[in-house]
Amino acid sequence: MTTTRMPLRECSLAVLLGCMAQASCLARSSGPLTIQEQGSFFVGGENRAVSQPAAGLMPAQTGDITVNQMYVEYQIPLHANRHVPVVFVHGCCLSSKTWETTPDGRIGWSEYFIRKGRPVYLADQVSRARSGFDPTPFTQARAGTLAHAQMPSILEATHQFAWVVFRFGPKFGEAFADEQFPVQSADELYKQMIPDLNATLPQDANPTWKHMAALAAKLHGAVLVGHSESGFFPARAALVDPSGVRGAVIIETGCEKLLPAQIAALARIPTLVMFGDHLGDVKGPFSWMAAYDSCNSYVEQLEKAGGDAEMMYLPTLGIKGNSHMLMQDKNSNQLADLLIAWIDRHVEHHAH
Amino acid sequence: MTTTRMPLRECSLAVLLGCMAQASCLARSSGPLTIQEQGSFFVGGENRAVSQPAAGLMPAQTGDITVNQMYVEYQIPLHANRHVPVVFVHGCCLSSKTWETTPDGRIGWSEYFIRKGRPVYLADQVSRARSGFDPTPFTQARAGTLAHAQMPSILEATHQFAWVVFRFGPKFGEAFADEQFPVQSADELYKQMIPDLNATLPQDANPTWKHMAALAAKLHGAVLVGHSESGFFPARAALVDPSGVRGAVIIETGCEKLLPAQIAALARIPTLVMFGDHLGDVKGPFSWMAAYDSCNSYVEQLEKAGGDAEMMYLPTLGIKGNSHMLMQDKNSNQLADLLIAWIDRHVEHHAH
User: Fold this and answer.
1) Does residue B124 sit at the A interface (CB-CB below 8 Å)?
2) Second-level CATH architecture of B31-48+62-347
3) How much is the ipTM here?
């Protein structure tokens, strides 16, 4: 708990009121924050009959459970009706905690975007965290009605894996000289890493895709942001239903090879791809250079189809040392500003 | 998504500023809400070596994972330094969603308490939701190194179980005439119900207990609120370390039989037990009358030991029809007021 932000000095009412009369106060990264509305809800969900109930603390029970629902929490700041909502979806072995207070105790992209006047929606991927998961195959295997080897694999990233694949440094415990991730707080990131049950979902039709599309439509337009495992989900969501997808932000992932008709459909949606630094500087099971190349190809295909697509490779902007977890890096506010400026220009069409 | 609250009409700045100058505006259940500080963090967590890595989407990896951490999110309203923080912990097969927007789209106890000027902390139990769980036994069983029957049981409450055990009515689909749970929105509650992996934890030393105690100590005093599966956790936390536990609120659970020395220790902590209606009106695997009797006995023992303890059985106050999920019932704000008044009198010692 050493990384919890300490309570801020309370502003005087005069300071507060003075600030509230100016739009500029929304941009502060600390101090009081006025919320127009907040809450949480679910998108989707379907009944599943339970014929092999779990035995345990409560008596065995048959009936129906709900699976494949997606938990979403949101905050709408004051005067947010000027801006398009932003939906953030986390990556592998993580939850929406990704976007909240950073491992070293600074505000995350969620609160930063809110302070910039953006309605923010955080979704826990289907089968993760507050969205729950379908326990059926595990319960069946425990009872012996499903072969144990047929259970879905539960993915859990180790500290050692994360350090290198997330590009904190060339090997575990050793950081790059210009590393932007707050490596002294890596233990706090490890606490965010939880079991990933996406293997329980159909790989060709992850329910999170359709739920992201449904959420964007319900909001009458939203920018969808995906990261890593979910990096390409904004495009996948738009392929299900593009009607609400005002923009697609694809962060640090491999881009898929699509059919020409799919590219034509996605070219109608402004698209930003973002990558950090040291892509070629780590060895391991995953090639960041291959991921980068696949997304360069994707951006080129969108452009050739008449689309508004951009590859934002941070080192080319002179921004060095960013990790895979760039929303938690020490310059996370600067990167958020880049993303917000892109939304303003390419989605909301404001001059900058 | 039909139960999402609709965006509120935006108040004029004049109305807002007028309101902000009065403490009374903090008590509104809608309209802008000013937050002094918000965020999330983890309490606890320990390393576990992974020798049997999962095979799947990513290459098998050995190393360390973090387990038994407890995710906590919080909001501190303006001028909250007048009040003791409140920590809410959810029950079986649920997450902190319990305390947020209700199934029928009203504000939950979390936001209601914040609007009453209370700092609010929501904890996902260890092994649930954003706290993650230890996947080791499942991964071992999948690989054949642990007998499948030795896997922990994953508990999932069915719709049919919840309807009766949560006392919406005498049988599934049939509500009590005076039922306070918004049964037309029961499907939204079912989406909150997620797999419960508490069987992966030691039953005699659930890590959530010590983490609740550590959180209360870190906050320099807090009221701990438990419900159902976690109903007795405030007492269990105080038995680990009473130093930060300013009050224990035990809602709708069975109370444990303790040793005299334990009762003597807990008698130093103001304690409130709360039960809803229809305790004897549902048949099933769980006896609410037995739970009620066990807590009456607990309250009596605390009183005999000189403690400040109260059984708040809502029907005796003329409040009828409350379900097990009373924080989501149609009169949830009224019940929150009762709880706040109890905190004011018995923990903060204000006259009412």
Assistant:
1) yes
2) 3-Layer(aba) Sandwich (3.40)
3) 0.91
